[in-house]
Helix-turn-helix domain-containing protein (Saliphagus infecundisoli), 249 residues
Amino acid sequence: MRELVFALEYEPGCNRVADALADHPDARVRSLSLHATAEQLWRVDHATGTPDALDAIEDAFLTTDYYADCLATEDCNATQTTNVLDRTDDTLVLYSDWERTPTCASVPHIARDYLGDGVLFETRHEGRHYTWRLIHSGEGDVAAFFDALEAAVGDCAQMEMLRAADTTTSAGGVDETQRDLSPEQEAALRAAVEHGYYESPREVDVGELAEHLGVPRSTLTYRLRRAEEHLAKQHVAGERVLEEPSATR
């Protein structure tokens, strides 16, 4: 099995879920989707945030003119049904069933066209930054998939390739600590250190650093957060390895 990880950074007004999350920076959406048929897709979204953030996210899913994950910029006449499975003060779970038309485009449908059946899609949506993780058989044409995706996205989003590798699984799932930082994450982390972002007090803020690197502020924030998460997990995993010999005596 092969893994592809990439990110889309949406421009304002291009994706209602991204707009809602940009207005509520502490909110997050994690999703799992899979094809039911060649044209039909099901998806479960798990959102966390404040009640106001969840109201905005729910509204984006339930009242949009077209499916929130569609890459079309206007109504493509797809048939979409979204239901609320669970709602608490800080959690919202949605189930969506979407049947596309010939004019619709989405990451899952483009992936099926070029990577074949049985592709699993796991996503993380923070602000305008939308990270996709695809697990596929390794067959198909990955280059053609990204060419078609780039054409479908157009000017609505910037696309960034993060990882392409064989999957590494164990009883506990994918081992996140074994993955290297992406080149973009490493560059962001290196620039942050060199320009004093981690000094106390800080010598540069994230906006100034983003301007220096020529990337959107939200993109830089995302890259730094993922890099910090990676390093923290590596550190904790290393401590566990050191503790194991003494624990077994």
